[in-house]
């Protein structure tokens, strides 16, 4: 069973070399590089196919013929590979080819004589292993010398080249390491080293990797043939194993001595298994090659659809930038990505959102000179083009490329000004950025510039609205202070009365006891009202977000609005359950509750009820504020959270702005919604995240 691996590894190598060689040649038969590779693949095919025929031979004469025929391929391989390397790197040496040609003619002339291979004999489990002649040793020395020379050329090219060409040379070097290490294991037994050619199958990998390196720059669909070759190889091994293994088991264990009957039963059993498993094995092999060896090309339509529906409609700047990076990484499959914004005050670009960049805190001075001109005219800077054409790269661009792992840099232009930069790293598929990519990404960057500008305007609008809300709130507080005078006057009157009688009744124990009970309590009541009023009048700290006990901001708001509700004959029903702490900003929450409850007061006008309830709903705490007021017309409900929209047409409206409240809730990760019925009342639903 183990012996069968060796001849069929040769067959697989022959199939891989022939298939990929023909594909490369037919794709671009005029290219010198493709022709050179086809010659090299033909040499490997000649060697590998005769290698297979040699190992399945039944007699010594046939084995000797096929191994000598295989050696013709082995003689041609080093010269074919050197020819390809020189075409591939552009380092052509005419004299080297002349010398190789002379040696090849000599070796091939004697390849079928005992001077080259004397005979075949038993070695290990191989019935017909070749015994080398004197000329074979010289050929092997020639083989090694040419390969070392080809390696040297490739190594120098790898150090000299940049960009995509450097990547291609890397593929070739990796292919050499894969294939020749595997192929060299064929020669151990020639010198009586007891190590069979277990790694011979790696020659197929050598052929595939080298083909990918040659064709990748010109034919982007080389991945298709590589994948099909690998899938075919996997299926061939699978089918072969299922046909041979049952045959051997039936013949060796179940039907000893059954001869042809055992073989037939084995083949039948293997065939049944193949029928029921072939499609599943094929699907498995395709999935594995896609997942681990290749990255599929991205769908342009999916990219446009995603940005149109999910990204460009977002008004929150931070969310917009993060979503942009996430979607580009996920759909375009880039190794790194960053969005930079221009800071007008400091006159520099800074990284606003990024993925897998070496320095996410980096800042950069604006493009200058040639770089900016190139970017403005062409709409992008492609680093592989600059490297391959040896263009001068400004220092600030070099710095950006290193720190952001950039391959494609696209300035985001709005009104002839760069408001930001979109940086994309290499594709995970190792493909270059094509004109098709640029046709999609350049307009996308321009549209993204508009979306970023809109988000910045909304952010500024939010700040403006917050400032307006603060001013209006201060005006409201002035009104509330007048309403609170009545509440404050009562405790002050009590304190005044006790103070007036204190001198006369200081020795009266009962009077002193009441004094100690009531006066501190009334003073504390006044102090609480003033404290809440002053605390509420301060602007919010929009950076502080922490776990908050819902009762604290609610009690502060109710303390302030209590006088107004009393004067309006409004009953408050508070049913706040023992809910967990919520995640947010205390001042945010206070402003939201103040605005919603005061709107409820104004909606009622006089005599009514306001209910404030809470409920634990999964990951959120929901607060419901319900009033028995006039309600909101159905056509207005969907607009009340829009900026500058109001239903208050008289001077009573304080206009704190539900738009601002909506933004505050979103900043805390929550949300606000409303349901209303004309003539019956309105309910606001506030959803907070649990801390």
The CATH homology group name of the largest domain: Rhodopsin 7-helix transmembrane proteins
Percent range of helical residues: 55-70%
Estimate nothing, just give the exact number of structural domains. 4
Count every helix, treating DSSP H or I runs of 4 or more residues as helices: 20
Describe the oligomeric state of these chains in a short phrase: single chain
Strand content: 5-15%
CATH architecture of the largest domain: Up-down Bundle
Overall 3D form: elongated
Under CATH at level 1, the class of the largest domain stands as Mainly Alpha
Euclidean distance between termini CA atoms? 65 Å
Task: Give a verbal description of the structure.
This protein has 691 residues and is α+β, with helices and mostly antiparallel strands. The protein has four domains: 2-219, Rhodopsin 7-helix transmembrane proteins (Rhopdopsin 7-helix transmembrane proteins), CATH 1.20.1070; 221-294, no CATH class; 300-436, Beta-Lactamase, CATH 3.30.450; 540-691, 2-Layer Sandwich (Heat Shock Protein 90). Helix content is 61%, strand content 14%. It is built from 20 helices and 15 strands. The strands form three sheets. Strands 9, 10, 11, 12, 13, 14 and 15 form a seven-stranded mixed sheet that branches. A six-stranded antiparallel sheet has the order 5-4-3-8-7-6, with helices on both faces. The chain has a two-stranded antiparallel sheet with strand order 1-2. Helix 2 (32-55) packs antiparallel against helix 7.
């Amino acid at each position: 069973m183990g012996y069968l691996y060796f001849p069929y590894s040769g067959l697989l190598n022959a199939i891989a070399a022939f298939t990929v060689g023909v594909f490369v040649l037919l794709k671009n038969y005029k290219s010198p590089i493709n022709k050179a590779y086809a010659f090299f693949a033909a040499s490997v095919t000649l060697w590998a196919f005769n290698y297979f025929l040699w190992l399945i031979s039944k007699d010594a004469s046939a084995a000797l013929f096929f191994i000598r025929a295989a050696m013709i391929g082995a003689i041609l391989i080093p010269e074919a590979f050197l020819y390809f390397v020189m075409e591939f790197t552009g380092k052509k040496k005419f004299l080297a080819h002349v010398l190789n040609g002379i040696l090849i003619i000599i070796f091939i002339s004697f390849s079928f004589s005992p001077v080259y291979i004397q005979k075949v004999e038993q070695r290990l489990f191989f019935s017909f292993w070749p015994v080398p002649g004197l000329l074979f040793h010289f050929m092997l020395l020639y083989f090694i010398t040419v390969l070392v020379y080809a390696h040297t050329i490739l190594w120098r090219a790898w150090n000299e080249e940049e960009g995509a060409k450097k990547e291609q040379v890397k593929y070739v070097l990796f292919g050499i390491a894969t294939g020749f290490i595997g192929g060299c294991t064929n020669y151990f037994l020639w010198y009586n080293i007891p190590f069979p050619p277990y790694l011979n199958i790696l020659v197929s990998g050598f052929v595939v990797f080298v083909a990918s390196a040659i064709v990748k720059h010109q034919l982007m669909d080389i991945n298709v043939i590589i994948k099909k070759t690998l899938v075919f190889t996997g299926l061939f091994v699978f089918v072969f194993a299922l046909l041979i293994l049952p045959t051997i088991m039936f013949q060796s264990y179940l039907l000893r001595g059954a001869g042809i009957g055992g073989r037939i039963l084995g083949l039948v059993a293997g065939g049944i298994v193949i029928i029921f498993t072939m499609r599943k094995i094929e699907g498995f092999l395709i999935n594995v090659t896609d997942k681990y060896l290749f990255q599929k090309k991205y769908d342009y339509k999916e990219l446009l659809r995603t940005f149109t529906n999910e990204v460009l409609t977002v008004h929150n700047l931070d969310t917009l930038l993060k979503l942009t990076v996430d979607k580009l990484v996920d759909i375009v499959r880039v190794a790194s990505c960053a969005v930079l914004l221009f800071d007008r005050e400091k006159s520099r670009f800074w990284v606003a959102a990024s993925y897998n960049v070496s320095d996410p805190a980096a800042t950069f001075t604006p493009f200058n000179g040639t770089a900016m001109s190139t970017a403005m005219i062409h709409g992008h800077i492609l680093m592989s083009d600059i490297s391959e054409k040896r263009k001068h790269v400004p220092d600030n661009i070099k710095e950006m490329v290193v720190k952001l792992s950039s391959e494609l840099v696209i300035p985001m232009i709005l009104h002839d000004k760069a408001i930001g930069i979109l940086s994309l790293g290499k594709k995970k598929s190792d493909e270059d950025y094509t004109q098709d990519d640029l046709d999609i990404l350049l307009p996308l960057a321009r549209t993204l510039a508009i979306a970023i500008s809109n988000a910045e305007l909304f952010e500024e609008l939010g700040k403006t609205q917050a400032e307006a809300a603060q001013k209006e709130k201060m005006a409201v507080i002035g009104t509330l202070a007048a309403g609170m005078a009545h509440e404050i006057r009562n405790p002050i009157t009590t304190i005044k009365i006790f103070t007036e009688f204190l001198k006369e009744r200081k020795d009266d124990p009962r009077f002193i006891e009441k004094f100690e009970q009531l006066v501190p309590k009334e003073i504390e009541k006044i102090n609480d009202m003033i404290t809440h009023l002053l605390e509420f009048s301060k602007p919010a700290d929009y950076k502080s977000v922490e776990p908050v006990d819902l009762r604290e901001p609610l009690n502060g708001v109710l303390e302030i609005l209590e006088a107004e509700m009393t004067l309006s004959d409004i009953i408050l029903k508070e049913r706040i359950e023992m809910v967990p702490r919520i995640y947010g900003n205390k001042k945010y929450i206070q402003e939201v509750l103040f605005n919603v409850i005061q709107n409820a007061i104004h909606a009622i006008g006089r005599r009514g009820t306001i209910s404030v309830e809470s409920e634990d709903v999964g990951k959120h705490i929901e607060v419901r504020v319900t009033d028995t007021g006039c309600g909101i017309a159905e056509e207005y409900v969907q607009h009340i959270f829009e900026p500058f929209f109001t239903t208050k047409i008289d001077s009573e409206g304080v206009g704190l702005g539900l738009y601002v409240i909506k933004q505050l809730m979103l900043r805390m990760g929550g949300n606000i919604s409303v349901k209303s019925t004309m003539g019956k009342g309105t309910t606001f639903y506030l959803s907070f995240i649990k801390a």
